[in-house]
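Predict structure. Chain length: 574.
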Amino acid sequence: MRRILASIATSTLALGGLLVATAAPATAHTPEAEATCDSLTVDLQAYQGATVTVRVDGQVVDRDTFHSSYDESFDLDPSREQTWDVEVDAHDGDHHDWDRTGDSDACESSAPEIGTAFYVYPKIDPERPAAWENSGFQTLIATRDGGEFWETLPEEYPGELFDETTLPADVCEGSWGVQQDIVGIHDGFDWADYQHIEFENGGPYFRDLRAYRHDDLSNYLAECSEEPARQVTPDEPAFVESCEADNAVTLPPDSEDVRYHATWNEARTEVTVTAELTEGVEPAPDAVTTWSHTFTREACEPEPEQEPQPEPTVVTPEAPQVTDLCGVENDDLSVPEDTEEVTYTSTDGGILAHAAESTTFGDLPAGYTAVDETTALFAVDESTFTDEPCALVPGDITAVCESEVPYLAYEVSLPQGVEADGDTPLTVTFLNPDGDDYTVTDQPLAGSLLWPGASAQEPLQWPGWERLDDGSYVETDGNYAWTRDGVQVRFEVNPDYSTVVDYPPASSECANPELPDAGTGGVDPIVDAEPVADAGAEELPQTGATVGIVAAVAALLVAAGVTLFVVRRRLRQE
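Prediction complete.
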C-alpha cells in the first residue's frame, strides 16, 4: 500500500513541475520603455530569446537578439521633441510580441543658446562672389551671443588672431570675403575649436548650423567706402500737454537728412517719435533718434488750496562803502556784512543783496537797482572809480642863503590815501637840459639841500666858479653852472606820485665868491680866465630883498677893475 501511495505522490509532483515549467514564460515577460527629454530607457526581462528593435524619429538606433534580459539607454536631442518606438519579437510565440511608441519633449533648461561668428578669408578666385566654395583659410575675429548678423565691422575687430595691417592693397577690390555663421551652442561647445576653417580641408563643421551669410570684406571697411556717411544730430520734438486741448507733439521740420514720424497708442496717451535718416546719413555719436512720451495730464488737476502766507517784512540793504582816491591801488569797495535779513554777494557786475525768506526790499538806497522783490544790485563799473593818477602836493619851495651858502628849501606832502614807505621816501633831482642830472635820494618830505656845486665848509664853493690853488676864483662852465640860470627840480616819491617845480632865482649874496679890490695891490682874482659874458648883465638869483643898487655898483667895480688890468698889461708890454 505504501508503495502505491509513494508512486502516486511522485507522479503528482512530476506533473505539477511540468505544468509550472510550461506556464512560467507566459507570466514572467516584463517589457518596459520610458523616455525623458534627453534619453530613452528600454528594460526587457524574463525572455527565453527575443529580438528587439529601437527607433528614434523613424531611424533604427539599435537591433539586437538577446536571451533572458535587455537593458539599454539611448540619448535624445534635448533641444526638440522626438518620436521613439520599441518593437519586441518573442521566440516563444507571436502572442508574446510587444510594441510601444511615444514622444519626448524638449528640455527647457537644456535648450541650446545661439551664437554668431564673424570670419574673414581671402577668396580663392577674386573675380567670383564670396562663398564657402570660394573661401580660403578663414579666421574667426569676433563672436557674440544671439542670432543676428553684423551689418558693420565688429567693434572688437580685428580680434586677437588677425592683423588688419596684413590686408592686401586690393582688399577694397573684392579680394577678401566675410562669412557669418549663426549656430546652436550645445554642451561642450567652445569657439576655440572653430578659430580657423578651411573649405578645401572640409571643416570643421558646426554641429547645429542655423544660418550663414557671405559678403565682400570691402563692404565693412571704412577705407573702402567711396564717401563716408554724413553724421547728423536730429532735432528733438516738443511734447505739448494741454488741459484745454488734446495731447499733441510738435515735430521738427523734415530736411534732406531727417524725416520725423509720430506713432500714438489707441488712447492717445503715449506717443513715440522716430527720426528716419536718409541714405548716406548716420547719427552722430550720442545722437538720439527715438523719443517716447507719456501724457499724464497732471498739470490739469486742480492745485490744492494753500494757506494764506503772512506779508513779508520790508528790509533795506546797506550800501557798500566806495573809496575813490587817486591811483588804482588806493581804491576800495567794502562789502557790507551779512545779517539775518540781508546777505551780500560780490559779482563781476557789482554787489548783489539778497533778502532772507519772508522778507522783501522796499525803497532802495542810492546806487541799488531792483532785480526782483528779494534781490537788488549795487552796480560797480569803470565809472565808479576815477582812477586819476596821484601827484605830490607842493608846499613852500625856494632857494635860500645861509652864511653865503646856497640851499634848496622845500616842503611837499602826499595826497590823501597814499602812505610813504619810511621817513625818507623823497628823491630830489636837479634836471640838466644838456647833460646828466643831479639826484639826491632818501630825503624827508620837508627840509633843505645844499645847492649842487656849493660848499658850506672852508674853502667855500659856489656853482659856476672854480677855486684856484692860490685862493682865487675863476668863473667856469663847470661845477653845476647850469643850475644858476633857473633850473627845474623834480620831487619824487615813486613813479606814480611826482611833481615838477621851477627853481626860483638865487640871491645875489650866494651868486659869486667875494673878489679882492684890484687897486689895493692884492692878488689878481682872475687867473688866465677865458673871456666870459658881461657879469653886470647876468641875472642873479633873488630871495626877495632889494639888492638891485648893490648889484649895479658891484658890476661897475668889476668893469673898472678889468679896465685897469688891461691898461697895466699894455704899459708893461711897451
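Summary: The radius of gyration is 62 Å.
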